[in-house]
Design brief:
- The protein is α+β, with helices and mostly antiparallel strands.
- The chain has one domain: Pnp Oxidase, Chain A (Roll).
- The protein has helices at about 10-15, 55-60, 90-105, 105-115, 135-140; strands at about 20-25, 30-35, 40, 45-50, 65-70, 75-90, 120-135.
- The chain has a 7-stranded antiparallel sheet, sandwiched between helices.
- A hairpin with a 5-residue loop joins strand 1 and strand 2 (about 30-35).
- Helix 3 packs antiparallel against helix 4.
Length: about 140
């Protein structure tokens, strides 16, 4: 397994339309794992959640958060980012549109963004700890 990678080494994965998994903490300390749409902006993940969404309520109480993005086909690679959620006060509507267009395409993503009428929370996850892996070396010999 290749180690000591940087986000630049997996830029195409960060730019791919893949759902990631967001981990937040329940009151009892248990972890909630949720599939989410995301974007990679200036070295951090951004995720939008609805104002009444359980993930947002968890993060209001406990800012600890992790996000994992990975390939589920060989040569298997991914990134795990652990840190504290930062709530962005500006740019929510623009982020909703960018993220929707990223996952649904310009027409359907634009229509989705236009019909979203609920305020939410734009979360930025800047890494305190990052783990990036890639099994390309193992698959190169097969």
């Amino acid at each position: 397994m290749r180690r000591n990678l940087t986000p630049d080494d997996i830029k195409d994965l960060l730019d791919a339309r893949r759902c990631s998994t967001l981990a937040t903490y329940r009151k009892d300390g248990g972890v909630l794992l949720s599939p989410v749409w995301h974007e990679w902006v200036d070295g951090a993940f951004q995720v939008h959640v609805g104002a009444d969404d359980i993930k947002g309520r968890h993060l209001q109480r406990d800012k600890r958060v992790s996000l994992v993005l990975y390939d589920d086909t060989p040569p298997y690679r991914g990134i795990e980012v652990r840190g504290r959620a930062r709530f962005l006060a500006e740019g929510e509507r623009e982020a909703i549109r960018r993220i929707a267009v990223r996952y649904l395409g310009p027409v359907e993503g634009g229509a989705y963004a236009d019909k979203v009428d609920w305020a939410g929370i734009l979360i930025r996850i800047e890494a305190e700890n990052t783990r990036i892996w890639d099994f390309a070396d193992e698959y190169a010999t097969r």
